[in-house]
From TrEMBL:
InterPro entries referenced in this protein's UniProt entry, alphabetically: AmpG_permease/AT-1 (IPR004752), MFS (IPR011701), MFS_trans_sf (IPR036259)
Lineage: Bacteria, Pseudomonadati, Pseudomonadota, Alphaproteobacteria, Hyphomicrobiales
Keyword Nucleotidyltransferase included in the entry's annotation: no
Membrane topology of this protein: Multi-pass membrane protein
Transmembrane feature ranges: 17-36, 48-69, 89-108, 114-138, 150-171, 177-197, 228-250, 256-277, 289-311, 317-339, 351-372, 378-403
Keywords: Membrane, Transmembrane, Transmembrane helix, Transport
Name of the protein this chain belongs to: MFS transporter
Pfam (any one): MFS_1
Compartment annotation: Membrane
Similarity-based family: Belongs to the major facilitator superfamily.
Organism (species): Methylopila musalis
Amino acid sequence: MAEAAGASRRLASPAEVVAGLAGVYMAQSVVGGVTFQGLPAVLRQDGASLSEIGMLLVTVAPWSFKFLWSPWVERYRLPPGRPHRSRRVVAAGGVVVMAMMVGAGLAGPGALGLLMTLLTLAAFATATVDIACDGYAVETLSERHRGWGNAAQVAGAYAGTAIGGGLFLVLVDHLGWAFACFAMAATLAALCALFVLGRDGPRPTRAPDAERPNLGAALRRREVRYGLLLVTIYVVGQKWAMVLIGPYLVDAGLGLSWIGVVNGLGGMSAGVVGAVLGGGLVRRFGGGAVAISSMGLQAAVTLGFAASAAYGLHAPWIVTGLALLNAVVMAVGFVALYARLMGYASLDQAGVDFTLFQCADAIASVVGWLGASAFGDALGYAWCFGLTGAVAVAATCALAPAFRRADAAA
């Protein structure tokens, strides 16, 4: 009994588990922030067109298709009857990502082809880490702590994006591209250390005779299939306008340092506030109601960008306010959505199931981002924001029946 009690004391508390997970999610989003907010602003200032900037979307491909190798990651991470290897996966992936960021610093923003290759490899590594990290989160956090875990995931994502899309731009503007990339690599090391060197939390041991993780087992479950439909509808309404915001801030007359502050301190604060607010609202009103309300607000914000572009409302307080409000609304919505999705994932292969949801998210996002980038130069911001706002209105109407079907299947 004393030995068992001592072992229990050596386990991490839920707060420690959440902190370690938040560090990994922040690290992943640092790379995403550099790729989709920092670099587009740098390229736009150097005269790149929206079509050229849109080529960066190729680097998101690993996030769209990581479900293809998720069963192999889960089989390595969860050896039957033996301790899990989540920390090994995170440590190995972190080393690869840091190396790619150092390489990006040496290559420079002018070598777009090489830069895209390095960022794609970094995305492959972070996507693999995410499979292991998500599976660990679902297994380790009890149902009553998953809300906090998901809030940490969303808040960590916003904080990481603030570092990659905000602090990164400030460093580029004042200290140069290479220094900024090296600083991001050092930041990644510090953030991943929270998880890799931390204590393990209480989690179930995989039975020796458990079925090997596979995609077929996930797709045979109705709650997974309806969850995929729910994710697609939600992302179509919420994220299609996101790729336009960074270039729009540049064309509206904001400087890189100001955009860096908006994406950095402002975006991080708005995202954290939205994540905490989302957790409280979900606890009070339920995830479905919060997600639907958030989508309606998202439509309003996107149409606000359309009005700003159409009527030349480029005052810094207007475009900055819209960008920050967008961050709050997105954070609230994704806390509500992904708290639900964690409940749809099987404990026998949580990394596979949750990865399928995220890949549906990424694929739906890329489809919209490619369309917005391709037609951005021809149609202009007003039409692009207007069309994506209309899509968000349609998604708001479709969410209620989608939630009902997913809940009935669970």
